[in-house]
Design brief:
Layout lengths: L19 H7 L6 H26 L4 H4 L1 H4 L20 H6 L3 H6 L2 H33 L22 H34 L2 H4 L6 E4 L9 H8 L3 E8 L2 H38 L25 H4 L29 H4 L25 E2 L9 E2 H25 L5 E9 L2 H9 L12 E3 L8 H4 L3 H32 L2 H7 L11 H21 L1 H12 L4 H39 L4 H8 L4 H21 L1 H8 L8 H9 L6 H17 L6 H23 L11 H26 L3 H30 L4 H12 L51 H26 L3 H11 L9 H6 L1 H4 L2 H4 L35 E2 L7 H12 L4 E2 L3 E3 L5 E3 L14
Parallel strand pairs: 7-8
Antiparallel strand pairs: 1-5, 1-6, 2-5, 3-4, 9-10
Helix pairs in contact: 2-19, 2-23, 7-8, 7-26, 7-27, 7-28, 8-28, 8-29, 11-14, 17-19, 17-20, 17-21, 19-23, 20-21, 21-22, 21-26, 21-28, 23-27, 26-27, 26-28, 28-29
Keywords: Membrane, Transmembrane, Transmembrane helix, Transport
Protein name: Phosphate metabolism protein
Subcellular location: Membrane
Length: about 1000
């Protein structure tokens, strides 16, 4: 056989092209990046369009799902949003015009700052496009390295090292803008947070005036002693005790009452079915025995909660069909029919057979039964057994509560809540070193609401808390390490085409169509990584509880910090490195000396994966958040099968809360990715800018009309996210330094190292300057508020209720001013003959004064000379730019450049409405006994809610529960329909409680 004419002969020698396999491995121009991107983009666009169409259709019909904040009566009037028009398109303009400050005043500070954070990220990426694209995109496209498609506009296509000076210049400008933006937003946050927390609506709340002290020594677990430490401003002291035994009793009572309620509903439904079967089987009475035609009609039947019911904003009724005209909105409770034919031979006055009306239709052995463990799994009548158990539990709970209140039961805990008269007093106690020994009466927390306390954390002593904290830290670090295994596998999927050429059992992948291969390399890895990271926040919340975080807001801050670590390591570092390494692995094995060139070329190619990742996170996840498929199914379909009025009420009233610790890190990491690839693969900036703005619009709608932002960190997630964003700068600078080293561009490398050092110095200086202002309210604002109150009608909050002059203790005694003696005329030195600096003495002071006078004289002389040559207007313009005066409608650029002038405390204070109600007006009289004690100390006995039936079973069960079980029950507002299903009016739920703004 003659191989002389075969083009493949010698392909492996003499720089031959090689066969098919070697050509695909060696030819850098053979790229499938566009195919992978389109394989992700098209399914995401289709999915997003379907979600948007469904949302557009059901938004008008199912308001309980798509605008509960407009119709829920459980919200205060100042919390409800203005409903949007119900047309197909006329709601877009009002929504677009709705400002973010509406979220600030009707939702929370966290919600407002989250929207602002998304806009800041979108702005950074957009400005990055304006700075980077005009310079670097042409340089990359004409770099001469032979790359194609998306790789052509990456730094990997640049062959000339001198070109990297342009990257350095662009990086300095863009990164400098990012640093200034972070500084500006930090100033804005501090001023806004101070204005919000010092507004009367927030300052007067109980949580703003209450401080939690942990690690309190036994000697200070005494109310009288604590009053001596903190003064007469102490109003109430909650000294906690271990209530674990009481908690078990209360939990058992709740579970027993729930079992009793289910059994009662089951009994009523069984009796009703049997009664109706008997009615249908009984012969009809003769016509002459029937009553006149004007006999009362039966009450209108109701149908359980359904999709159409959720669309009615006026009433949260669980009925799907409207009642007949003239019928009240709450249907009357059904009574026994007066129609003799309905009774089918049964007497109208039903006897109490064996103590149960239900016994007329069902035998005793058919009643609900269960096998309790405490009864050795012997079968018992559920209703009778639970009644007896509840009758025994109630006095046991009351007795144990009395002992705990007297302090004769339960060990004392190390945590103490102290309520102060004003927010000013609480801040003073919070910022004061309370004990002379280390770790005593520390840590301290302020602003914790009673409904967000994690009581299990307060039961820990200091040693257990410290041990658990370190244990959870070690567990999280180990999880990050081991989580890298599936993340690395996902990273290799982005180059599965090249891996299939090296691994023999993956050769079948090369036979797949290009479209399928693009989906495997583009859509599948991004989707898998998103799902993999979605479960991490829930794991971290469990770790936070184990570590002893005292409140839900502190748990979210804990999750934010560690979840960002997960995101950066798994989504960015591991995926980038494995993607680049898998692309160049075979070539490095063949030629190890080419490793640095191959890595410098393949690291930028890893950016293709993040284009798909951003598409999924922003478009697909955003569309899913807008659709809210689970809520739509829960209220539209699943609610039809719920046969318990309490569950119906719970489903109706519950609005899903926002977990800020799981939201901020996802988009912070996308910002980190965009910044890191800004000079390496600038296309990422465009995708990130558009994606962030899409998420902003979706989040704005949800926070305005759908979601509950009850978890309140008082805005602390925002500065933490800004600091995390600096990590993207570090990564970008380090990546550029590494790429410059790999390409032997040493001078650009030196310039980037210089800017890296500058970034670290900026980071350190910013943290040192702003750290005290993030958690504390400064005392100087008291004077500023007092001065502002003279010029407007904004009421003064708690921080200024104590005079500024009297706000600090008299260190030198009360009568220090009176004891001062007149020492005669002061000695006047040469430095103060002008009267400007009395008391200047010494050569150092003279030197400083001389230097200041000389500098001022020099500046005046230079200014005068510039005016003489006609540069006066230019100087005035420059001075107006550097030191602008405040105006209500400033230039957006000037407002961005001067946050201290245009976004000061005095001006941001105007964002808070002045007519908000006083939150203390909602406090019950006995709030002292309910707020900062565990729920088991004050939680009332459960009240049963069962449906009313025509047979009268429910009426007797309510009476028997009160007589034999000492359990309160009611059948008002719930009823059985003719088809045997349960209907209810959620507004008439017997356990509906008014919300209180603690």
């Amino acid at each position: 056989m003659d191989f002389g004419d075969d083009s493949r002969t010698g392909s492996a020698r003499d720089d031959g092209d090689g066969g098919t396999l070697s050509k695909q491995l060696g030819n850098n121009g053979d790229s499938s990046s566009l195919a992978s991107l389109m394989s992700t983009l098209l399914p995401v666009l289709i999915y997003s369009a379907v979600c948007l169409i469904i949302f557009w259709f059901f938004r008008r019909k199912v308001q309980r799902v798509y605008s509960p904040r407009s119709i829920m009566h459980s919200l205060f009037a100042e919390e409800r949003s203005t409903p949007l028009p119900q047309g197909w398109f006329n709601w877009l303009k009002p929504f677009w015009k709705q400002g973010d400050d509406f979220v600030l005043n009707h939702s929370s500070l966290d919600a407002f700052l989250f929207l602002r954070y998304l806009k800041v990220l979108s702005l950074i990426c957009f400005v990055g496009c304006c700075i980077v694209w005009p310079v670097l995109m042409p340089l990359h496209a004409t770099g001469g390295n032979g790359l194609t498609e998306l790789e052509r506009v990456t730094i990997g296509n640049v062959s000339d090292p001198n070109t990297f000076f342009a990257h350095v210049a662009v990086a300095w400008v863009f990164f400098g803008f990012i640093l200034f933006t972070i500084y500006r937003e930090s100033i804005y946050y501090i001023n806004l947070r101070n204005a919000y927390l010092l507004s009367p609506y927030y300052a007067n709340r109980l949580s703003s005036r209450t401080v939690l002290f942990q690690c309190v020594p036994p000697a200070y677990r005494d109310a009288a002693r604590l009053r001596k430490v903190f003064g007469d401003s102490v109003k109430h002291v909650w000294i906690l005790r271990d209530t674990i035994d009481l908690e078990h009793l209360v939990d058992e009572r709740t579970k027993t009452a729930t079992r009793l309620e289910r059994a009662e509903i089951q009994l009523i439904k069984m009796a009703d079915r049997a009664r109706r079967r008997g009615e249908r089987a009984a012969p009809a009475l003769p016509e002459h025995l029937l009553p006149p035609t004007d006999s009362p009609h039966h009450p209108a039947a109701a149908i359980p909660v359904s999709l159409s019911d959720a669309s009615r904003p006026s009433s949260p009724s669980t009925s799907t069909t409207p009642l007949p005209a003239g019928t009240p909105s709450a249907p009357p409770s059904p009574k026994l029919s007066e129609d003799p034919e309905k009774h089918a031979g049964f007497p109208q006055t039903l006897p109490d057979v064996n103590g149960s009306v239900a016994g007329q239709w069902i035998p005793a052995d058919k009643r609900p039964r269960h096998r309790p463990l405490g009864n050795f799994l012997r079968s018992v009548d559920t209703i009778k057994w639970t009644r007896r158990r509840l009758k025994a539990l109630n006095p046991a709970i009351a007795k144990l509560r009395r002992k705990l209140h007297r302090g004769t039961e339960g060990r004392p805990l190390e945590s103490v809540f102290i309520e102060f008269a004003t927010q000013s007093d609480a801040q003073r106690a919070y910022q004061t070193l309370a004990h002379d020994k280390p770790m005593f009466m520390s840590p301290r927390f302020i602003g914790i609401r009673p409904d967000e306390i994690v009581w299990d954390s307060l039961r820990m002593n200091w040693f257990a808390r410290m041990a658990r904290r370190f244990a959870m830290l070690a567990a999280i670090v180990a999880a990050i390490i081991f989580w890298s295994i599936p993340s690395a596998f996902i990273g290799t999927l982005t180059n599965i085409e090249k891996l299939s050429q090296m691994v023999f059992f993956l050769e079948w992948i090369m036979l797949l169509p290009k479209v399928v291969l693009g989906v495997i390399q583009g859509l599948l890895p991004a989707l898998a990584l998103s799902l993999l990271m979605a479960i991490v926040p829930w794991i971290l919340r469990g770790c936070a509880r184990v570590a002893g975080e005292p409140s839900l807001s502190d748990i979210e801050l804990y999750v934010q910090s560690f979840y960002f670590g997960f995101q950066v390591v798994q989504v960015f570092l591991v995926t980038t490195l494995t993607s680049a390494a898998s692309a160049a692995f075979s070539q490095i094995l063949k030629d190890p000396l080419s490793a640095k060139d191959l890595l410098s070329e393949n690291l930028p190619k890893a950016s293709n994966f993040y284009l798909s990742y951003i598409l999924i996170q922003c478009l697909a996840v955003g569309a899913g958040n807008l659709l809210r498929l689970y809520d739509l199914l829960r209220h539209g379909i699943m609610a039809r099968f719920v046969q318990n009025p309490r569950v119906k009420w719970r489903v109706w009233k519950r609005v899903r809360p926002v977990h800020w610790g799981g939201w901020f890190p996802v988009f912070t990491n996308m910002g980190v990715i965009a910044i890191s690839y800004s000079c390496i693969a600038p296309v990422v900036l465009g995708f990130a800018s558009v994606g962030m703005y899409v998420i902003y619009l979706v989040s704005k709608y949800n926070l305005l009309f759908v979601e509950d932002s009850s978890i309140d960190t008082r805005g602390l997630c925002y500065p933490r996210a800004l600091k995390h964003l600096l990590f993207g700068l570090y990564l970008s600078e380090i990546c550029l330094v590494g790429l410059f080293v790999l390409r032997s561009a040493f001078y650009p490398m030196i310039f980037m190292i210089i800017f890296l050092i500058f970034t670290a110095l900026f980071h350190y200086s910013l943290s040192e300057a702003l750290a005290p202002l993030l958690a504390n309210l400064p005392r100087t604002l008291a004077l500023e508020i007092e001065e502002l109150s003279r010029t407007d009608d904004f009421p003064s909050p708690g921080l200024s209720d104590v005079g500024v002059a009297d706000s600090s203790p008299h260190i030198f005694g009360q009568d220090g001013d009176e004891d001062e003696e007149d020492d005669g005329p002061e000695h006047v030195t040469l430095g103060n003959r002008g009267g400007s600096n009395p008391g200047l003495e010494g050569s150092a002071s003279l030197g400083r004064t001389f230097a200041k006078v000389s500098w001022n004289a020099y500046v005046k002389a230079v200014t005068a000379q510039l005016h003489k040559i006609g540069l006066g207007p230019v100087l005035e313009r420059i001075d107006a730019i550097i030191r602008p005066e405040y105006s209500p409608n400033p230039n957006p650029v000037m407002r961005f450049l001067h946050p201290s002038t245009f976004d000061s405390f005095a001006h941001l204070r105007e964002l808070i409405p002045k007519d908000l109600p006083d939150p203390t007006s909602t406090y019950p009289e006995d709030y002292v006994f309910k707020t900062y004690y565990p729920p088991e100390m004050w939680e009332p006995a459960p009240k049963l809610w069962i449906p009313k039936d025509e047979g009268g079973v429910s009426a007797q069960e309510v009476e028997h529960c009160a007589r034999y079980g000492k359990v309160e029950a009611t059948d008002e507002g719930a009823w059985l329909q003719e088809d045997g299903k349960v209907g209810c009016e959620v507004e008439q739920a017997p356990f509906w409680e008014e919300r209180v703004l603690y």
